[in-house]
Amino acid sequence: MLVRRRGALLLALVSLFLVATAPLAEATTPDLKLQRAKQADRDGYSPSLLLRAAQIAEVEPNDIPADAQEIAVGDVVDAGVPDGDVDWFRIDASTETWVAVSTAPIDGSVTDTVLELFESDGTSLIATDDDAGVGLYSALTGITVPDDGVVYARITRFSSVGDDAYRLAVEPSDAPPAPPVNDLPETAEVLEGCNVVVQGTTVGATNQLDVLACVNPDALGGDVYYQVEVPYSYQLTIQIEPDGAFDPAAYLFADPTDPAGSCVAGIDEAFTGENETLLFTNESADELPVTLYLAIDGWDPQRAGSFSAALSCDFVVDTGDESFGSLKARF
Q1: 286 in the Ramachandran plot: left (φ > 0), alpha (ψ -120 to 50) or beta?
Q2: With respect to CATH, is domain 185-329 assigned 2.60.120.380?
Q3: Domain locations in the chain?
Q4: Any idea what the Cα angle at residue 32 is, between residues 30 and 36, rounded to 5°?
Q5: Do domains 48-172 and 185-329 have the same CATH topology?
Q6: CA nearest neighbour of 277 among 308, 318, 317
Q7: DSSP structural state of residue 56
Q8: In a designed cystine with 162, which of 110, 194, 238, 326 is the match (CB 3.0 to 4.6 A)?
Q9: Model confidence over 167-199: pLDDT tens digits?
Q10: In CATH terms, is domain 48-172 a member of 2.40.50.840?
C-alpha cells in the first residue's frame, strides 16, 4: 500500500512539473494572425505568361496615376519597388472580359508586394491583394474589366522583407467563381435540427458583414450562412474544421437585417488551417427556442476555402433550481 501511495505521489509531482513547464499558448493578435497567414501557404498563383511573353522594362517616374506606365493584356514588366516607392500602371484591357494581374519573382527575388486595382479614375478600388501570388507576391484573378476597358494597377511594399524586384504580368482570366447559394443572410441554408454536420465553402463568397462586435480582428473574407434553431436550456457547440490554408472565423446572430447589432457569440482564435469551436447557450428569459444565423467567414480575404462544420446540442443543467420550462425542454 505504501509503495502504491508513493507511486501516486510521484505521478502527481511529475504532472505538476509538466503543467508548470508547458509553454504558454500564443495570444491571438492581428499582427500574429497576419504573420501566421503569410507563413502558411507559399504556393500561390503563378502567371503562365512568365515563360513565354516578351518582357518590358519599368519606366520611371510612375509614382502617381497621371504618370502611370501604359501596358496591355499580355505584357510582362520587370520592375522594382524600393521602400517608400509606388508604381502605377495603366492597363488597356478593352479586349477582355476578365483579367488576371499578378506579381512574381525575378530570378529568385523575394519581395513582399501589395497589389491594388482601380477603375479609370485612379481612385475607385476594384480589388486588393497581399499574398495570393507565389510566396509573398500578390495576385488578383477573375477581375471583371470595367466598361471603359481601363484598369489601373498600383504596386507597393507591405514590408521591407527581401528584395525590391518583381515581375508584373497581365493576362486573360477565367470568370470568377459563382458565389455559393448561401452567400447572403437571406439565403441562409436552413438546418434540420441542431445536431448536424455540414460541408461548405467560402470560394466565390462575398464579404457581407462588418462583425467587429463579434470577433476582433474583423474577418474580411467571404462569408456563408446557415439558420439553426436552439432549444431553451441547450448549449450549441459548433466545431469548424478547415481544409488546407483556410483560416475560418464564425459568429452567431439573431437578426439577418442587423447581424452586428444582434451578435450573440463569435470566435476567431485559431490560426491558418486550425479548428475553431464556437459555443452558445440558450438562456432566453421567455424560455423558448431561439432561431439564430451562423456565419462562417474567412479571416484572410485572399484565402477562401472549404470546411466541415459539426453542430451539436446538449441539455445544460442549471446550478440553481430548475424551472418548469427547462425541465420540459429535456423531453
Answers
A1: alpha
A2: yes
A3: 48-172, 185-329
A4: 120
A5: yes
A6: 308
A7: E
A8: 110
A9: 999 999 999 999 999 999 999 999 999 999 999
A10: no
